[in-house]
């Protein structure tokens, strides 16, 4: 009786693994097939795009920084006269960079982790997106 139970368990595991492997192979074959237009077009569109000439450098705050003051100042430099959007947790800000490309904006933060998305559009229509993660807590005040 014990031998039969052990053999049944081993055969069941083997059949289960064979079926799972078959599903895995079929899934990868469908994803990379040349008849699947969405996967091949995505690769072609990404390779045909010219790299964006819009560059943005954040001066402050630093990525993954801990901030104890809200609102906090987001500042940096980008292309001259570029339009900038900053999407915070609760509010969005839209403004234009100066003639030198410098920008500053006070952003309200929610308690805890804040995801801030900085998007810059230059005069040609090119865009540059940066994600900034900040932690706001008054417990870390100096």
How would you describe this structure to a colleague?
- This protein is of the alpha+beta class.
- It has two domains: 2-48; 57-140, Sandwich (Immunoglobulin-like), CATH 2.60.40.
- Helix content is 30%, strand content 35%.
- It is built from two helices and eight strands, in the order ααββββββββ.
- The strands form two sheets. The protein has a five-stranded mixed sheet, with no helix packed on it.
- A hairpin with a 5-residue loop joins strand 7 and strand 8.
- The longest helix is centred in the N-terminal third of the chain and has 30 residues, at 2-31.
How do the strands of the widest beta sheet line up side by side? 2-8-7-4-5
- Which shape, going by the Cα principal axes? elongated
- Helix/strand order: HHEEEEEEEE
DSSP helix fraction: 25-40%
- Residue-averaged pLDDT: 82
CATH superfamily of the largest domain: Immunoglobulins
> What is the tally of beta strands?
8
Domain module count: 2
Based on secondary structure, the structural category is alpha+beta
The radius of gyration over CA amounts to: 26 Å
Main beta sheet: strand number and arrangement? Answer: 5 strands, mixed
- Number of helices, where a helix is a run of at least 4 consecutive DSSP H or I residues: 2
At CATH level 3, the topology of the largest domain is Immunoglobulin-like
Poorly predicted spans: 39-44
The N- to C-terminal Cα distance equals: 72 Å
- What fraction of the residues are assigned to beta strands by DSSP? 25-35%
CATH class of the largest domain: Mainly Beta
CATH architecture of the largest domain: Sandwich
């Amino acid at each position: 009786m014990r031998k039969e139970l052990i053999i049944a368990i081993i055969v069941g595991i083997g059949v289960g693994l064979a079926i799972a492997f078959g599903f895995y192979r079929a899934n990868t074959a469908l994803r990379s097939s040349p008849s699947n237009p969405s996967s091949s077009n995505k690769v072609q569109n990404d390779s045909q795009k010219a790299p964006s000439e819009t560059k943005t450098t954040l001066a402050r705050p630093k990525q993954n920084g801990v901030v104890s003051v809200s609102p906090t100042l987001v500042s940096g430099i980008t292309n001259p006269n570029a339009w900038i959007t900053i999407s915070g947790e609760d509010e969005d800000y839209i403004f234009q960079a100066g003639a030198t490309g410098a920008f500053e904006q006070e952003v309200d933060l929610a308690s805890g982790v804040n995801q801030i998305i900085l998007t810059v559009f230059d005069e040609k229509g090119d865009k540059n997106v940066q994600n900034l993660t900040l932690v706001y807590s008054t417990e870390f005040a100096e």
